[in-house]
Amino acid sequence: MKKKWFFFVLGVIGFVVEPFASMANEITGEITLEYDVFFADAQHPDQSSKNYIASCAFKAEYYHEWDNGSSFVFTPFGRIDEVDSKRSHFDIRELNYQYVGDTWELRVGVGKVFWGVTEFVHLVDIINQTDLVENIDGETKLGQPMVHLSLVNDWGTLDLFGLPGFRERTFPGRKGRLRTALVIDTDNAEYESGAEDLHVDWAVRYSHSVGDLDFGIYHFRGTGREPTLRLGLNDRNQPVLIPFYEQIDQTGLDLQYIAGQWLFKEEALYRFGQNDDDYFASVSGFEYTFVTVAGSKVDLSIVGEYAYDERAEKATNPFQNDIIGGVRINVNDTASTEILCGLAYDLDNASKVFSVEAGRRIGERYKAQLQSRIYFDSTGDNITSALRDDDYIRFELTRFF
Amino acid sequence: MRLLKKQHRKVEKLKTALPALVLGLSLLCMTPFISAAQIDTDEPEKKGIAIAAENDRRDSGWLNNSATVKMILTNKHGQTNTRMIRFRTMETIKDGVQVGGDKTLLVFDSPLDIKGTAFLTHSHKDRDDDQWLYLPTLKRVKRISARNKSGSFVGSEFAYEDISSEEVEKYTYQWLRDEVYDGRDCYVVERVPVDKKNTGYKRHIVWFDKAEFLIRKIDYYDRKDMLLKTLTFKNYEKQLDTFWRARQMRMVNYQNGKSTELFWSDRKFRAGLKSRDFTKNSLKRSR
Fold first, then answer.
1. Dihedral angle sign, alpha carbons of residues B51, B52, B53, B58
2. Are the beta carbons of B152 and A261 separated by less than 8 Å?
3. Rounded to an integer, what distance in angstroms lies between the CA atom of residue A166 and that of residue A144?
4. Nearest-5° angle of CA A128, CA A130, CA A134?
5. Strands (DSSP E) along A211-245, which ranges?
6. What's the structural domain count of chain A?
7. Which DSSP string do the residues of A153-165 spell out, in sequence order?
């Protein structure tokens, strides 16, 4: 697989860039040093005994744009982790050529697409696989090979996707923290489709803005991004969880309505084919912003969300009947200081997760970030109970170049 | 955005094509005579609005433009921070008549941690603007509220309302006096925001020069009617032999001792921008 990627990269660079390389050859990048501090010793067997874990990540981007508006982008990413060999990984986040016509856009290659409106739960986003070892919040994604045609019209935008090739979700290895009690054996993933990870998936999405309403509705057919975890044995006969990727059909909706300083948000999906159990899931939320709090430049937003999953305790994500309350503070200082914190409360078993993300720029080329998650009252059968000894603070320092 | 462009709303939306078009064109033709006559009046309200309308009229028909701005933020200790922002703006013109609000796209080039972050605004005269924010790391386009414009624009001394579209209809006017400012004969006009709830200001005092009806200075008074900020415009230059643009703008905040300067460059008028350059899709590829 890696070899394939490598030649794909060389091929596209050689073919597309060389003959035209004339303007705007732009290279940017970032290196991040990360330091995780866990408050307690690991609870699962074989996990690293270290409670202070360092890692280093890089991301580079080559971008080139032609006069006719078409462009090429290549964004490699990699991380080296001190203890977890599965968290040490490399990925091509983007490697694509895009052509822009008056009413249509065509993108071919590895790309990234985000769908959704809510802040704490990302329910309907499906094109790209989650790079879970990067961040347990699920916001970091793996590059997805795609042919993406976007038709931009007065009556809305129609996006058509052909997705050749599937990316498996990343999961922590045996030594890693923030994992399930049994290791997820990513080397032996199973598929419902005989084509396995070469199955071609499809998606179509219609989106539009009408006055104060922005909405999108899509249908996806192909390999589900969220595996069902099945008990099994690995090559050394140890009990593990084997990820099983089903063929699914999923219809999703996201909408946001603005009323003054209020934002009202809704994401909903209906999924067919996972575990032969069709189900409905949704997240509803609001956001209200106070501008220039107490005469300062500070903007403060209150965020509230409710997530529901019809499968209840069988849900494959932790938000099956949860309310989440949060605050975003945009200090609006020269360092662009921002803080987002939230408390998720599980209405079924009263477990709670407190999370904080904060960041500010240092000088012109550095950024410091802090992230923390603290788990309270995690009981036996909840997904978060596997993480109850993994309260952590993550410090990141990024240098941009 | 102010000075990059101004809004020209002599004509309402073309709902029924022909009658409105005829009415619109005749209004457009009449406006200069009305303005010229009313500037000579002694009634402060009529004179004030005539001056603002004339400023507006003289800056119509530039269609679209692009520019780069270097924004320098200075704190009270004299320490500076620099931001590079690219602007694109387009008038919404149909059959030669302005039919809607301007569209503006602005993209950050630096600092590098926010490189690629972009704002898209579709301005409206009769309701809140539509505004979207693009977050490049997540590839996420987020619709944001544009109701309250008193918030600081990326930590600068400019509020969103200071840089958003200039609409004659957004204020009530009163001519105060004539005065020489910076060696130029000027009209001094007070303007009061119509939407009193969502502004950070009680009033502005604006200095228009008599020669070209260009804004030379604005004093902003906060909601308690204390002098909060002064914006000055320097190095006006003529583009396409018609449209005046200041190369330099400086906002000084008296209450916190900070200031923000804007240095404009690479201005291109009628730069061939199209609707496709101001869509939600365009945000994702704006960089």
1. positive
2. no
3. 7
4. 135
5. 213-223, 228-233, 239-245
6. 1
7. ETTEEEEEEEEES
**Which residues in chain A are contacts of B128 at CB distance < 8 A?**
212, 258, 260
Query: Is B287 near chain A, with CB under 8 Å?
Result: yes
Q: A77 contacts in B (CB within 8 Å)? A: none
* Full domain range(s) for residue A134: 2-400
- Distance from B118 to chain A by nearest Cα, in Å? 15
Closest partner residue to A299 (CB to CB) among B111, B139, B151 is B151
B276 contact residues in A (CB cutoff 8 A)? 100, 102-103, 152
Structural domain boundaries enclosing B169: 17-284
Asked if residue B6 belongs to a domain, the reply is: no
* Rounded Cα gap, residues A3 and A118, in angstroms: 38
Q: Which residues in chain B (129-168) have CB-CB distances under 8 A to chain A?
A: 130, 138-145, 147-148, 150-152, 154-155
Tokens read off for B165: 């579209």
Nearest CA in chain B to A159: B281
- A98, A134 contact by CB (below 8 A): no
Beta bridge partners, B220, equal: B204, B229
Choose, out of A289, A334, A357, A400, the residue to mutate when testing the contact with B (most B CBs < 10 Å): A334
Contacts of A297 in chain B (CB under 8 A): 151-152, 155
**A25, A28, A71, A114, best to mutate vs chain B, most B CBs in 10 Å:** A114
**A114 to B150: CB separation less than 8 angstroms, yes or no:** no
Is there a contact between A244 and A191 (Cβ–Cβ < 8 Å)? yes
**Contact present, A297 and A284 (Cβ < 8 Å):** no
Residue closest to A156 by CA, chosen among A206, A100, A113: A206
Q: In chain A, how many H helices and how many E strands? A: 2, 21
Contacts A340 to B, Cβ<8 Å: none
Cα–Cα distance between A379 and A376 in angstroms, integer? 9
Encoding tokens for residue B114? 């926010």
> In Å, how far from its chain's centre is CA B18?
30
Q: Round to whole Å and give the CA distance between B121 and B131.
A: 4
| Number of domains composing chain B | 1
B23 touches chain A (CB under 8 A): no
Q: Which of B3, B1, B65 is nearest to B232 (CA)?
A: B3
Q: What is the pLDDT along chain A (401 residues), one digit of tens a residue?
A: 444 555 455 445 544 444 443 347 899 999 999 999 999 999 999 999 999 999 999 999 999 998 887 999 999 999 999 999 999 999 999 999 999 988 999 999 999 999 999 999 999 999 999 999 999 999 999 999 999 999 999 999 999 999 999 999 999 999 999 999 999 999 999 999 999 999 999 999 999 999 999 999 999 999 999 999 999 999 899 999 999 999 999 999 999 999 999 999 999 999 999 877 799 999 999 999 998 888 888 999 999 999 999 988 777 778 889 999 999 999 999 999 999 999 999 998 888 999 999 999 999 899 999 999 999 887 766 677 888 899 999 999 999 99
CATH number at residue B46: 2.50.20.10
Q: Identify the CA nearest to A61 among candidates A112, A1, A101, A105.
A: A112
CA distance B236 to chain A (A): 28
Burial (CB < 10 A; 0-12, 13-18, 19+), residue A22, is exposed
CATH number, domain with residue A176: 2.40.160.10
